[in-house]
Automatic annotation (TrEMBL):
Matching Gene3D superfamilies: 3.60.21.10
UniProt keyword terms in alphabetical order: Hydrolase
Protein's UniProt keywords contain Hydrolase: yes
Protein's name according to its UniProt entry: Protein phosphatase
Length: 249
C-alpha cells in the first residue's frame, strides 16, 4: 500500500490542493489522482475555522465514497458537524460557526446535497482506519495499542479527543495526557488533533497536525516511506495555538 496521509485540513482548501500537487497528484478530473496509484488518507477535522470547509467535504467525499481513492477517519469537529446535520442541539462555536455560515449561504437545494454527502461520508467510514495488514492505523487523536480492533465509548473518546480525563488547564483547555511515549504497539499510528509546529514522531506514532488553520503548515506523511511533506499556510500565525509541551499525567 502506498498512501499519503494528510493532517487536519480545517477548511484550508487552497493549501490542500497545493499539498496534493506537491505530492504528485493531478486535478484534471476535478479531484486529486496519482499516476502511480497512490491514494490519500485523512486524519479527520476536514472542516471548521478555515475558509472553504464545504469544498473540502466535497472532494473527500468524491475520493473516499465515490472513487475509493482515499481512507478517511473522522475527527471531533467532523463528529460535531455530523450531529449538527443530524438535527442535534450543539453549540455552534469553536470553529463550527464558520462551516455553518458557509452552509447557510447555499441555496436550499445545495444545502441538502452537501449535508447528504457529509453524512454519507461520516456514516460509511470507520471511527479509525486499520489498513495494510494491520501495520498502519489512522486515528484522529491517536489510539492506544490495546484499543486497536475495539469499538466502545472509551475508544471513541480517545480517538476523537485524545487521552483526556475531563480535567482542564487554568485557561479552560482540556488536559490531554501524552500517550505517545507509552505506545508499545507494532502498528504505525498516524494522527492529528493537537497542533504542533513540526510533525512529531514518538515511538511508532506520528502527529501530523501542523496547524495549517492557525498559520502553520499542512503536512502529509508518505507511507510506507515515512517521509514528511509540508506546504506553508496562507493564514495568519497564532503561536498560542500550538502545543509546545505535553502533559504527562
Amino acid at each position: 500500500m502506498k498512501i499519503d496521509i494528510i493532517g487536519d485540513i480545517h477548511g484550508c482548501y487552497e493549501e490542500f490542493t497545493q499539498l496534493t500537487e506537491v505530492l504528485g497528484y493531478s486535478w484534471e478530473k476535478g479531484y486529486p489522482v496519482h499516476h502511480d496509484g497512490r491514494i490519500l488518507g485523512f486524519v479527520g477535522d476536514l472542516t471548521d475555522r478555515g475558509p472553504q470547509s464545504l469544498k473540502v467535504i466535497e472532494i473527500v467525499y468524491e475520493l473516499a465514497i465515490v472513487h475509493k481513492l482515499a481512507l478517511y477517519a473522522p475527527g471531533n469537529h467532523c463528529n460535531k458537524l455530523y450531529r449538527y446535520f443530524s438535527g442535534n442541539k450543539v453549540q455552534i462555536t469553536h470553529g463550527l460557526e464558520t462551516t455553518v455560515a458557509e452552509y447557510k449561504q447555499l441555496p436550499e437545494r445545495h444545502q441538502k446535497i452537501i449535508r447528504k454527502k457529509f453524512m454519507d461520508l461520516y456514516e460509511q467510514s470507520p471511527l479509525y482506519q486499520v489498513t495494510d495488514n494491520e501495520k498502519l492505523v489512522i486515528a484522529h487523536a491517536g489510539i492506544r495499542s490495546d484499543y486497536i480492533g475495539k469499538m466502545n465509548d472509551k475508544v471513541k473518546s480517545f480517538v476523537l479527543y485524545g487521552d483526556v480525563s475531563g480535567a482542564k488547564h487554568p485557561d479552560g483547555s482540556p488536559i490531554r495526557r501524552d500517550w505517545a511515549p507509552y505506545y508499545q504497539g507494532q502498528a504505525i499510528i498516524v494522527y492529528g488533533h493537537t497542533p504542533v509546529l513540526e510533525p512529531r514522531n514518538v515511538n511508532r506514532t506520528y502527529n501530523i497536525d501542523t496547524g495549517c488553520v492557525f498559520g502553520g503548515k499542512l503536512t502529509a506523511l508518505r507511507y510506507p516511506e515515512l517521509k514528511m511533506i509540508s506546504v506553508p499556510s496562507t493564514l495568519p500565525f497564532f503561536a498560542e495555538k500550538f502545543k509546545t509541551r505535553f502533559d504527562e499525567s
